[in-house]
Amino acid sequence: MGRISAEACGACVVLTWTGSGADRWANVPIRNGALPESVSGGVHQILLPRTVPLLRGAGGFVVEEHARSGSLEGAGLSRKDCMIRITRKIEFSAAHFYHNPNFSAEENRRVFGKCNNPHGHGHNYVLEVTIAGEPDPTTGMVLDLKELKDILQTEVMERMDHRHLNYEVPELAGQIPTCENIAAVIWKLLEPKIKSGRLDRVRLYESPELFVDVSAGNGARA
Ligand code: NI
User: What sign has the CA pseudo-torsion 139, 142, 143, 144?
Assistant: First the structure.
């Protein structure tokens, strides 16, 4: 048999099963300030994965079931079960145009339209960088936001702000500087610099109506 531990957390109690089936737990809202008898009486049972659905709605109590790993969101989670994300936003201005040297001039005009104009055009890009992790108990911070600001200044602003992305950013050499490719380059620049927490998402707006997200596994190309 495993072991049950209970942790009060505001209006809820988090019951954790540490035996077999440890990947499941239940978050039981407390009614009248106490654990419902019908729940506490069968507490072992409700934490067994196969029996949790049977308890849903039983006796009028709502039982929320969560996976223990991965992204956890919702009320009443204990700190060790939470994933916290912080985001810093910066803006930079840059010029670009789209051109594939393997296309004919006609193909380039057809595929890229006005964006193929070799004189380029500008955008005011907005970049949101999200770091995920647990707050350090001594500072309360996932990552020092001043440190993140300095990283963004060095890795993004100094490279890309007021630059022509087709000519002046070595990391984009040989790539069409689409919002997708710029965001992927920014991910690759930032990811090794984040020492507290981990880089969770890079979101790059080319305009208020268009943005690209890069996250682990879909944008960190070699
Ligand atoms: Ni453009």
Answer: negative
pLDDT tens-digit readout, 60-102: 233 333 333 333 334 444 455 577 999 999 999 999 999 999 9
Q: Tokens 């803006």 identify what position? A: 91
Cα of 214 vs centre of ligand 1, distance in Å, is: 19
69 neighbors 77 (Cβ within 8 angstroms): no
- Cα of 124 from ligand 1 centre, angstroms: 10
Using the mean position of ligand 1's atoms as its centre, give its distance from the Cα of residue 156 in Å. 18
Residues acting as catalytic residues: 115, 162, 206
The reported pTM is 0.63
Vertex 105 angle, CA 99 and 108, to 5°: 40
Q: How many CB atoms lie within 10 A of CB 158?
A: 11
Report CA(127)–ligand 1 centroid distance (Å): 15
Q: By the 8 A CB rule, do 212 and 220 touch? A: no
Residues 155-196 pLDDT 10s: 999 999 999 999 999 999 999 999 999 999 999 999 999 999
Which two tokens mark 144? 């020092």
Q: List Cβ neighbours of 156 (8 Å cut-off, separation of 6 or more).
A: 90, 92, 127, 186, 189, 190
